[in-house]
Write a structure and sequence with these properties.
mainly alpha, 133 residues, disordered C terminus, 2 helices, single chain, rod-shaped
């Protein structure tokens, strides 16, 4: 009877040992998975921090871009204002030049008229007049 019992118990003992080994393997697998989950959780936390940093940088770059656009618009306004001032100055200078040219032309005309009425007397004319006397 013991032999029958041993033949029945031996496979049962082997089955229990197999189940215990499987339980140990499952526990080890569970620990490995928990370790991987911890590692992945840490990586996820690092990536979240990196995303926050990148979002901060994007916000800073967008602000800098906005400031640059504002400065460019201001610079363009100043350039256009300078162009308008140059155009106004050019117009004024052209008006002054025209006035000066008008005075110069009148002065030259007046000088030419006075010079033609004052014809120079040559010495030969003076001698001939004095000889006749």
């Amino acid at each position: 009877m013991f032999e029958d019992l041993e033949t029945v118990l031996a496979p049962l003992e082997q089955g229990v040992e197999n189940i215990i080994n499987q339980i140990q393997q499952l526990r080890q697998g569970k620990q490995d998975l928990e370790s991987q989950m911890t590692q992945l959780s840490d990586e996820l936390g690092q990536r979240d921090k990196k995303i926050e940093q990148l979002e901060t940088q994007v916000a800073q770059l967008e602000y800098a871009e906005s400031e640059l656009e504002t400065l460019n618009a201001k610079r363009e306004d100043e350039r256009q204002e300078a162009e308008r001032e140059r155009a106004e100055i050019r117009i004024r200078l052209e008006g002054i030049i025209e006035l000066l040219n008008g005075f110069t032309d009148k002065s030259e005309t007046a000088d030419a008229a006075s010079e033609s009425s004052k014809e120079p007397v040559s010495t030969s004319d003076t001698l001939s007049v004095s000889e006749e006397s």
